[in-house]
Design a protein that fits this description.
299 residues; two-stranded antiparallel ribbon; 11 helices; TIM Barrel; 8-stranded parallel barrel; globular
């Protein structure tokens, strides 16, 4: 991408029509061997510049980034129109892509949501992660899910126009919608999986259902458009994040991905790293390299 393209992007984001956008994702199963692109969820490296991030991830061997375009992330929503094209350009110079945008979006009508999504679509980004939805545990569950359906249908309509897929992470926690996965099946059953899909998080799936995660995976396999990988152990009844291959997430998960010819992005998360300074972020690169090497071996 050159400077003139960047300028064109900034001027055309809010006015370009659907004809300029990428087509919707195909969910067809390929007969050829699966090629699984690997992204890095950049949260532990947000203190690095875009150039530093791209250089480090390219040297390790990643295919792309799960970029934080959200409140408190690398790019705040109000700056996405200007800064996301720059990030994409910097990554492209290192043969990397934004494979998923981690967003703050949960509604189509919230501030900067449509602007951010139109920007992403024009840049060729295919997927964005929705923010968490939560229950009020003092109220019945099913009516709350029913009340959320119109909200998702509105997002699905916008995604259909733009050629995007929103993915929702099955994040563990007693108040989180989707922690049990079955509620995602109920919530999304009438929505096209090309428009609203699931980012299947094996760590959270196992925490919430240590022996039921395979059932949950197969329940929503047709809707999974990203996989999030990380590892954990239980200590004193609590889930504690650990480096890849040292916890409870074992080979059978990766075997299922390959058996089902999974070709959507796999995003490596390293939630056991919590850098407070740039030096600490750089020091974590060695852990990221080891986790990446383990993941590539499994895939």
């Amino acid at each position: 991408m050159n400077i003139s393209r960047r300028a064109w992007m900034r001027n055309s984001i809010l006015t370009a029509g659907a004809a300029a956008l990428p087509s919707a994702l195909s969910l067809a199963v390929e007969s050829k061997p699966a090629v699984i692109p690997v992204a890095f969820f950049e949260k532990p490296l947000e203190l690095l510049s875009a150039e530093e991030l791209a250089g480090q991830l390219a040297a390790i061997g990643f295919d792309g980034v799960e970029a934080t375009v959200r409140e408190g992330g690398r790019i705040e929503p109000e700056r996405a129109k200007d800064e996301l094209p720059v990030l994409v350009e910097t990554l492209e110079e290192n043969d990397l892509k934004v494979l998923v945008v981690a967003s703050s979006i949960s509604r189509s009508d919230q501030a900067y949501a449509e602007e951010t999504l139109r920007t992403a679509a024009l840049l060729g980004i295919k997927r964005y992660r929705l923010s968490k939805l939560q229950y009020d545990l003092k109220k019945p569950v099913i009516p709350q899910l029913d009340a959320l359906k119109p909200q998702l249908r509105d997002l699905a309509a916008l995604n259909r126009e733009l050629g995007l897929t929103a993915v929702y992470q099955n994040h563990g926690g007693e108040s989180n919608v989707g922690a049990q996965v079955w509620d995602l099946h109920y919530l999304m059953q009438d929505i096209n999986p090309r428009e609203i899909a699931v980012a299947y998080d094996i760590r959270h799936a196992m925490v919430e259902g240590i022996s039921a995660w395979k059932t949950n995976f197969h329940l929503i396999r047709h809707r999974i458009q990203a996989a999030y990988v990380k590892d954990f152990v239980f200590e004193n009844g609590r889930a504690v994040n650990v480096p890849m291959g040292t916890g409870l997430v074992r080979d059978d998960f990766y075997l299922i991905l390959k058996q089902t010819k999974f070709t959507a992005p796999v995003s490596l998360h390293v939630p056991y790293l919590h850098p407070k300074t740039k030096a600490e972020a750089l020091a974590g690169i060695e852990h990221i390299k080891k986790d990446f090497a383990y993941l590539k071996k499994q895939l």
